[in-house]
């Protein structure tokens, strides 16, 4: 897995990209949501750089033992926590989690993997009280 500097726009964008691939595919509505939300700008990247991070993540996943071709990816909680730890700035965490929630909701379906990753990020980053309720609300509203 590539390494990005702590609190870099790329580290935050990779968390958003993880939400996008959590259910095994990236939908057009998720990509549209990135544009609509101005996610790249909010994270401090150009849209082409955000696309590069997403492509890099998918390459890392395909070239590793995380998932065989054609299956959804299963990344260990240990690795997910390490990737989440690359973002420790409270404001960047809040922005990243908000973008993740919006992107996960974009296709009107919240998969179990997306819900689990959102909850893990919220708890690990210390947003559990207000975000856990939001994750549950998002999950209920898209089912």
- What is the straight-line distance between the termini? 32 Å
Helix/strand class:
mainly alpha
Order of helices and strands: HHHHHHHH
Domain count: the total is: 1
Name the helicity range.
55-70%
Description:
The chain has helices spanning 9-21, 28-36, 39-43, 47-62, 77-85, 90-105, 112-124, 128-142. The protein is globular. It is mainly α and 143 residues long. The chain contains eight helices and no strands. Helices cover 67% and strands 0% of the residues. 34% of the residues are buried. Helix 6 (90-105) runs antiparallel to helix 7 (112-124). It has a single domain (9-142), classed as TerB-like, CATH 1.10.3680. The longest helix has 16 residues, at 47-62.
Identify the notable features of this structure and list them briefly.
single chain; 143 residues; mainly alpha; TerB-like; 8 helices
Question: How do the strands and helices of this protein lay out in sequence?
Answer:
Elements: H1 9-21, H2 28-36, H3 39-43, H4 47-62, H5 77-85, H6 90-105, H7 112-124, H8 128-142
Helix pairs in contact: 1-4, 1-6, 2-6, 6-7, 7-8
């Amino acid at each position: 897995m590539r390494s990005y500097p702590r609190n870099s726009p790329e580290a935050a964008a990779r968390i958003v990209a993880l939400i996008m691939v959590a259910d095994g595919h990236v939908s057009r509505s998720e990509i549209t949501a990135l544009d609509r939300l101005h996610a790249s700008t909010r994270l401090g990247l150009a849209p082409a750089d955000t696309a590069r991070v997403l492509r890099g993540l998918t390459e890392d996943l395909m070239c590793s033992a995380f998932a065989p071709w054609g299956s959804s990816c299963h990344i260990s909680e240990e690795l997910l926590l390490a990737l989440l730890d690359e973002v420790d700035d409270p404001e960047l965490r809040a922005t990243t989690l908000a973008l993740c929630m919006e992107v996960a909701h974009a296709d009107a379906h919240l998969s179990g993997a997306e819900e689990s990753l959102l909850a893990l990020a919220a708890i690990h980053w210390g947003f559990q009280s207000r975000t856990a309720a939001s994750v549950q609300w998002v999950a209920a509203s898209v089912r």
